[in-house]
Every structure is written in structure tokens, then in C-alpha cells.
């Protein structure tokens, strides 16, 4: 009797061991696949700006440096390329930390209205380049305290407002609004009247490296990581992110936060 029981237990253990190993192998395979895809994307992203920088420097070395006007123009373009590389590398650093779960949230209480105003001040120069007005919905000028990671929420706001400028139209506008929700939450909205997003592209927006316009021709194109970073940060806070958009009319990105 006891031998049969032991055999049954042993068989069960062996089966469990085999299942666990299979799961572990699947997980490692997924991770390997992820790493391969990620590396492929990274080198693809870095190639364009690196090529730009390289070609301007080569042209300068080949003689363009003798012409004062060309020298300035090409050096400025090379600098732009390097700037883009820096952005991309910073975004890559951020997304890999977030995806590995290495980043801890540093929760503090702060005024989200004040943070919104700081972000608008920070991006005013960018907005001016396209004559886009940044405004704050004046209904909510009072302070609203939230509990969240200040630096990370600042990053979220920068990415969203920066996108509203990048994909906004000349002379357009971006508005930040904050509203109290009933369940001890607030919702922060960033609304633009820019190019909008076609319905079929909306579900993929938050994927790493996803861009609606894949041509790469857009000069102000970022890393394609901005919204993936935003989603990670909001989800790490156990909060929600929403997007509403009408093609050629504009977009609204919003997210919730916990009120103090
Ligand atoms: P990118 O570096 O390309 O801006 P993001 O992850 O920030 O990467 O955004 C992904 C894509 O979503 C963008 O390439 C763009 O096509 C679209 N997008 C993001 N924000 C907006 C917006 N406010 N209006 C229109 N399209 C947007």
C-alpha cells in the first residue's frame, strides 16, 4: 500500500518538475526573443542619427569647413543629430530600467497643478517654435495635492506635452486640465488640436518603438519610446492611462493619480 502511494507521489513530483522546467524554458525563450527584438530595434533607431552626424562631419572634413556659412550649417546639423542620439539613449536607459522592474517609485506628496505649470514653462521654447500656445485650464488654478513619484510624473507630463507639440499644427494649442474624480483620484488631461491619430493605430500607440509615421522622414521624430515610458510609469503607480483622438482634429491623453 505504502509503496504504491510513494510511487504516486514520486510520479506527481516528477511531472511537476517537468512542467516547471518547461515553463522556465518558455520564459527564457520569451526573454531571449524580447532581447533580440529589442536589440534589433535599438540599432535601427540609432542608425539614422548616427549616419546623419557621420555624413555632415565627413562633408566638413572633405572641404566644406572652408566655407564659413556651410561650416556653421553643417556643424549645427551634426549637433542636432547628436542631440537626438542623446534623447534616444536616455529613453532606452529609462525603458530598460522600467521593463526590468529595477526602478522603485519614490512616492511623495506634491501639487500636480504646480508640476503642470513647471512643465509648461520648461517646454515653452519648443512650443514657440511652432507658435503653439500652452495653457492651463483656468478652472483648476487651485493646488491639488497628489501622492506619486514626482520625477516620473514629470517625465510623463513632459512626454505628453512634447508629443502635443511635435504632432500639433503650426499656430495650434495644447491645454492641460486637471479634474477631481469621485474616488479619491484626479485625472490629468493633455489635449491638443493637432494631427490626431487614425482609429486603427490607437491600440498600438503604447508599444515600444511604434510610430504611426514609419517613414522616419519627420525631423522631430523621437525614439518611439515616449508613450511606452508613459504607460510603464502610470501602470507602476497602479493608475490608468487613456487616449481619445480624432484624425486631423486632435488628441487627448489622460491619466489618473491618487489624491492626498
Ligand atoms: P515618438 O518618439 O515617435 O513621438 P511616442 O511613443 O511618444 O514616440 O509616440 C508614438 C507615436 O504616437 C508617434 O510616433 C505618433 O505617431 C503618435 N502620437 C503620439 N502623441 C501624439 C499626439 N499628441 N498627436 C498625434 N499623434 C501622436
UniProtKB/TrEMBL annotation:
Keywords: ATP-binding, Kinase, Membrane, Nucleotide-binding, Phosphoprotein, Transferase, Transmembrane, Transmembrane helix, Two-component regulatory system. GO terms for molecular function: ATP binding. Its EC number is 2.7.13.3. Residues 41-260 form the Histidine kinase domain. It catalyses: ATP + protein L-histidine = ADP + protein N-phospho-L-histidine. It is an enzyme of class 2 (transferase). It comes from the Bacteria. This is histidine kinase. It comes from Flavobacterium luminosum. The lineage of its organism: Bacteria, Pseudomonadati, Bacteroidota, Flavobacteriia, Flavobacteriales. The chain holds residues 87 to 346 of 346 of the full protein.
Amino acid at each position: 500500500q505504502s509503496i504504491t502511494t510513494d510511487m504516486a507521489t514520486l510520479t506527481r513530483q516528477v511531472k511537476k518538475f517537468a512542467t516547471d522546467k518547461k515553463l522556465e524554458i518558455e520564459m527564457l525563450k520569451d526573454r531571449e526573443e524580447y532581447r533580440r527584438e529589442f536589440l534589433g530595434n535599438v540599432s535601427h533607431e540609432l542608425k539614422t542619427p548616427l549616419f546623419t552626424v557621420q555624413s555632415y562631419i565627413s562633408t566638413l572634413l572633405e572641404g566644406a569647413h572652408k566655407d564659413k556659412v556651410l561650416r556653421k550649417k553643417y556643424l549645427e546639423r551634426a549637433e542636432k543629430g547628436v542631440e537626438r542620439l542623446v534623447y534616444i539613449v536616455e529613453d532606452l536607459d529609462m525603458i530598460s530600467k522600467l521593463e526590468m522592474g529595477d526602478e522603485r517609485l519614490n512616492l511623495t506628496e506634491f501639487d500636480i497643478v504646480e508640476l503642470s505649470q513647471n512643465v509648461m514653462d520648461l517646454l515653452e521654447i519648443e512650443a514657440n517654435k511652432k507658435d503653439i500656445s500652452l495653457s492651463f485650464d483656468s478652472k483648476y488654478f487651485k493646488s491639488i495635492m497628489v501622492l506619486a513619484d514626482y520625477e516620473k510624473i514629470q517625465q510623463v507630463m513632459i512626454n505628453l506635452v512634447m508629443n502635443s507639440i511635435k504632432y500639433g499644427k503650426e499656430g495650434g494649442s495644447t491645454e492641460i486640465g486637471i479634474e477631481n474624480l469621485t474616488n479619491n483620484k484626479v485625472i490629468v488631461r493633455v489635449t491638443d488640436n493637432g494631427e490626431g491619430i487614425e482609429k486603427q493605430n490607437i491600440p498600438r500607440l503604447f508599444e515600444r518603438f511604434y510610430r504611426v509615421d514609419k517613414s522616419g522622414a519627420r525631423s522631430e521624430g523621437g525614439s518611439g519610446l515616449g508613450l511606452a515610458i508613459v504607460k510603464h510609469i502610470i501602470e507602476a503607480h497602479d493608475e490608468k492611462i487613456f487616449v481619445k483622438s480624432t484624425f486631423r482634429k486632435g488628441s487627448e491623453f489622460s491619466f489618473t493619480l491618487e489624491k492626498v
